Amino acid sequence: MFAILLKPGVFMGLCGLHPDGGWELGYWLGKPFWGRGYATEAGRRVVRFAFEDLKAEALRASWFHDNPASGHVLAKLGFQPAGDGEITSLSRGGPVLCRLVALDRATYMTRKMTP
Q: How distant, in Å, are the alpha carbons of 21, 37, 55, 63 from that of 73?
């Protein structure tokens, strides 16, 4: 897990990887920082870390159906649709419908090489 800082001492959120039968990307950003590209920038750095440093073969992630902005972040990172599902959300107090997405090494490398 990595802290997302605007500058030293100004915490905006978190972005990281969870090793749950493969690598899962997750992030959280405080509401005052939404819509400014910070989640995409942090996600891009963690995706690069996953493929280049951890040598991951694939990543997966999910976003809640009622939060399409999170889906846009993942799409900008190169994640592709992988179905629908349900996850248990502690912050929402139970199961939540979500979209599943995935990104494999080959797709990452192709996108990385394309200007």
A: 23, 8, 22, 10
